[in-house]
Write a structure and sequence with these properties.
The chain is an alpha+beta fold and 725 residues long. The protein contains 21 helices and 26 strands. It folds into three domains: 270 residues, 7-stranded beta/alpha barrel; 135 residues, no CATH class; 255 residues, Distorted Sandwich (Beta-galactosidase, Chain A, domain 5), CATH 2.70.98. Strands 15, 16, 17, 18, 19, 20, 21, 22, 23, 24, 25 and 26 form a twelve-stranded antiparallel β-sheet that branches. Strands 1, 2, 3, 8 and 9 form a five-stranded parallel β-sheet that branches. A five-stranded antiparallel β-sheet has the order 10-11-12-13-14.
Length: 725
């Protein structure tokens, strides 16, 4: 009698922190619930199931009956529950203490809710570095699953990837299973018989082999066109029936069963990797496009399969280079994590709340981008910042600073080798990068837990060549999202514009008078005559008991003329107003320029009800996607009635305003689409030098929440004059 092939069906169900409630519900109705309904009657089948913490908490609140059914199958031994870090962070992105905390917290939660004794875990996005092994074992985990791609990078041949291996770090031994890329593309897109035949080849090669399918549960119903294919057309039922009919040689087992029932294939040390597609997405766009071109060119060669195993893409951490906005989120998260680790009252209720908010802010999806929307989805970025700001608010409750207060801190907050400035009070928290144009790159409205500068610049992506080729590339039918080409809107090729700098605020521009318009600025088709956009500024801080001003100065060129800019950013204790002052010196008296200061506002959607510009009389003058060209204004405001936020510019001298939206052409599992990222507001002035070659202006940005509107104390701070330079 031959030993049957052990087939491990491992599902990973996940929805990120901050995803819309209707998306959770849709995935539940289209994937999670129908899969369970089909699976339950097949009493001989066993699976391993991972459900991420954000999704598990939502299910417990909205569909506890589903979790009750899962718990019954756990008790019956038919479902093994895999653990992992609670809120699905990339483990290499977070400190070791947070890895341990997230994994152990989730194992305890799963035990309490489902009665599961967690032994194995899902590795988020299968992002692996060798030093993780010791942290994972120390957190109580015995085994995990990666991709066969990892093992190929370590030099193993495909025929060796039919069982688990042992890996080690600092004397801690972890069992690691190779998940099959071939099975990921067969299931559920090919017929069940093709999977049977593939398993048959493995079984013929070595009796007792272990085959592992490990992939997203959403591909069973939520991915485009899969619900009809998997359920209405009966693919999943046929698949399970095929497994049942071949149970004399295919034994469906959990990862735990496979560990107990087979010996390890050997020891292996795996290099830094994730699944193959992820390593390609982590490359710079041009190199990613070149890799795709080379793969297409050589895929028909006789030795391609052997050659492909030696091809590696990029390194996950470089998403923080590819998208500097990701690095800013990461750096903010690390700042909060360090504060949590320094606590001398770790069991204080506010400390526990801060740590949970920190863990939620570590959810990986907003930190990278591939076939899924990722960092291009504003609501995911804002959810990360919301949790991180909440964590900081909670930490301030443990040892409250004097109220009201205003502070300034200098540090390399974003790990770029230069010092940044953090200016904060009870209501606002502003981060300034003197080395990068003296720009404001984060502005937190603390009460609303909203970073209005969670923006994203438009940049080239490898898939933009498909957009340029247009809808003729569109695919029909059921296919993996890695192969699917769908256009959710027409004319996207006309929306491909690229920004030469990050879309921050307090960015200093010089144009020739009459050349700039909102349309041309949005398309990046206006010549820049100054070099201050990314020029380093020198900084000094001016402190008084109730207010602080960050003063920045730089000498640069405007159309060949040396000009000195000094700009001040100030706020007061208890105030939600930023006070801005500009002084331009050494201006030529025979020249005029249009000087503009760029501001970006993120999280305030365009073309949406309740989001609009308003004038000095608080009257709406267009939704936030409107391209305005206003002259001789004393104020301009932006409102978001849903968030309860108002932003008001109050100008000391008549001002022109240009406004326009920043929209990216990006890719998600649903296809290519245009996504609103931020609203640009550019106050601008025609600069004419006075007798001393100087020009100056002051203005205020008032950042109100719904509760601020009627506050007499807050109203008093709004009426104070800006701090002069």
């Amino acid at each position: 009698m031959t030993t049957p092939l052990r087939f491990c069906l491992v599902l990973h169900n996940h929805q990120p922190v901050g995803n819309f409630d209707f998306v959770f519900e849709q995935a539940y109705q289209e994937s999670y619930l129908p899969f369970l309904n089909v699976f339950e009657p097949f009493a001989d089948l066993r699976i391993s199931l991972h459900t991420s913490g954000p999704l598990m908490e939502w299910l417990d609140q909205h569909h506890p009956e589903y979790l009750d059914r899962i718990g019954q199958l756990v008790a019956a031994g038919r479902i093994e529950i895999l653990g992992g870090p609670f809120y699905e962070p990339i483990l290499t992105m977070i400190p070791a203490a947070d890895r341990h905390g997230q994994i152990t917290a989730y194992s305890q939660w799963l035990n309490r809710r489902l009665g599961a004794e967690v032994q194995g875990m899902w590795m988020p996005e299968r992002v692996w570095e060798a030093s993780l092994a010791s942290d994972i074992v120390d957190a109580g985990i015995s085994y995990t699953v990666l991709d066969d791609f990892h093992f190929g990078n370590a030099g193993l041949a495909p025929e060796q990837l039919d069982g688990y291996y042992l890996t080690e770090d600092q004397g801690r031994v972890l069992r690691v299973f190779p998940g099959s890329e071939r099975l990921r593309y067969l299931i559920p897109f090919a017929s069940p018989e093709e999977t049977r035949d593939h398993l048959g080849l493995m079984h013929a090669r070595r009796h007792g082999a272990v085959a592992v399918f490990a992939d997203d549960g959403e591909k069973f119903g939520t991915w485009p066109n899969t619900h009809n294919h998997v359920y209405r057309d009966g693919w999943l039922e046929r698949f399970f029936r095929m497994l049942q009919e071949n149970r004399h040689w295919i034994e469906t087992v959990t990862l735990s069963d496979a560990c107990r029932g087979s010996e390890p294939r050997g020891r292996i040390y795996l290099p830094d990797a994730s699944y193959r597609e992820m390593t390609e997405w982590a490359l710079p766009a041009q190199r990613q496009a070149l890799l795709e071109q080379l793969q297409q060119e050589f895929s028909g060669q006789p030795n391609w399969q052997q050659l492909q195993s030696f091809i590696r893409g990029g390194f996950w951490r470089n998403f923080k280079v590819k998208y500097p906005e990701s690095n800013e989120m990461y750096a903010r998260m690390m700042e909060i994590s360090r504060r949590c680790q320094r606590l001398d009252q770790p069991n204080h209720p506010a400390a526990l709340a801060a740590k949970q908010a920190l863990y939620r802010g570590q959810c990986n999806c907003a930190y990278w981008h591939g076939a899924f929307g990722g960092i291009y989805l504003p609501h995911l970025r804002h959810a990360v910042y919301q949790q991180l700001i909440e964590a900081e608010n909670q930490l301030d409750r443990i040892a409250p600073p004097p109220s009201p207060h205003v502070d300034v801190t200098v540090d390399d907050f974003n790990f770029d080798g230069f010092h940044e400035i953090k200016l904060s009070n009870d209501r606002l928290c502003a981060y300034v990068a003197p080395a990068a144009g003296g720009a404001l790159y984060e502005l937190d409205i603390r009460q609303a837990r909203h970073n209005v500068l969670a923006t994203l610049a438009r940049r080239p992506e490898a898939y933009h060549r498909k957009v340029e080729q247009g809808a003729g590339q569109q695919t029909d039918g059921v296919a993996s999202i890695h192969d699917l080409v769908v256009f959710k809107q027409e004319g996207l090729e006309r929306c491909l514009h690229y920004d030469p700098y990050q879309r921050n605020s307090l960015i200093d521009h010089f144009f020739l008078p009459g050349e700039a318009t909102p349309d041309l600025l949005a398309a990046v088709e206006v010549d820049e005559y100054g070099d201050f956009v990314q020029r380093p500024y020198q900084v000094k801080n001016r402190r008084n008991p109730d207010h602080i001003q960050v003063q920045l100065q730089s000498r640069g060129l405007v159309d060949g003329h040396e000009v000195v800019i000094t700009k001040g950013i100030a706020t007061r204790a208890g105030s939600s107003t930023l006070e801005i002052a500009y002084l331009l010196e050494e201006l030529p008296r025979d020249r005029e320029w249009e000087f503009a200061v760029e501001w970006n506002f993120s999280g305030l959607p365009s073309n949406a009800e309740g989001r609009y510009f308003f004038d000095e009389h608080r009257q709406p003058i267009g939704q936030l996607g409107t391209r305005l060209q206003l002259e001789n204004q004393s104020s301009l405001g932006l409102a978001d009635d849903w968030l309860g936020l108002r932003f008001s510019f109050r100008m000391a001298k008549p001002t022109g305003f240009w406004t326009f939206p920043i929209e990216t052409v990006s890719h998600s599992e649903g296809g290519f689409e245009l996504v609103h990222q931020s609203v640009v507001v550019m106050p601008h002035w025609t600069v004419r030098a006075d007798a001393e070659g100087r020009w100056s202006v002051t203005f205020q940005l008032q950042c109100d929440t719904r509760d601020d509107e009627d506050s007499p104390t807050h109203a008093a701070t709004r009426r104070q004059a800006p701090v002069p330079l």
